Amino acid sequence: MEDNETKPNNTSQDTGVTTLDQILPPGTCRVVMVPARGPIRQRLLAFGFVPGAAIEAIRSAPLGDPVEYKVKGACISLRKEDAQLIVVTPGGA
């Protein structure tokens, strides 16, 4: 990587999207897409993190990881590394 290049940011100011790990409790959002691939994608989709689903960040563990989310009536705890794989729009719940 050259010196003048910058690391991409998780939040896009133009489109208003971010990743789920940036939504802090208590917060709400709506899933835009799940760009992950393979078994992790299938697991996230099976948990209900499908495009259009409303998500509520309920609480985080004492050290901040994992975070508990409510999606489609179920409470699911995700590590931040897994939550980074879900693209959301804040406040859309």
Model description:
The structure is a single chain. The protein has 93 residues and is an alpha+beta fold. The protein has a six-stranded antiparallel β-sheet with strand order 1-6-2-3-4-5. The chain has a single domain, classed as Roll (SH3 type barrels), CATH 2.30.30. The protein is 14% helix and 32% strand. The N terminus is likely disordered. The protein is globular and about 30 Å long. The longest helix is centred in the middle third of the chain and has 9 residues.
What's the helix and strand layout?
Layout: E1 18-19, E2 27-33, H1 39-47, E3 54-60, E4 67-71, E5 74-78, H2 80-83, E6 87-90
Antiparallel strand pairs: 1-6, 2-3, 2-6, 3-4, 4-5
Quick description:
The protein has 93 residues and is α+β, with helices and mostly antiparallel strands. It is built from 2 helices and 6 strands; from the N terminus they run E-E-H-E-E-E-H-E.
Dominant shape: globular
Which ranges are low-confidence, i.e. pLDDT below 50, for 5 or more consecutive residues?
Answer: 1-12
Task: State the name of the first-level CATH class.
Answer: Mainly Beta
SS summary, helix count? 2
Based on the model shown, name its key terms:
alpha+beta, disordered N terminus, 2 helices, six-stranded antiparallel β-sheet, SH3 type barrels, 93 residues
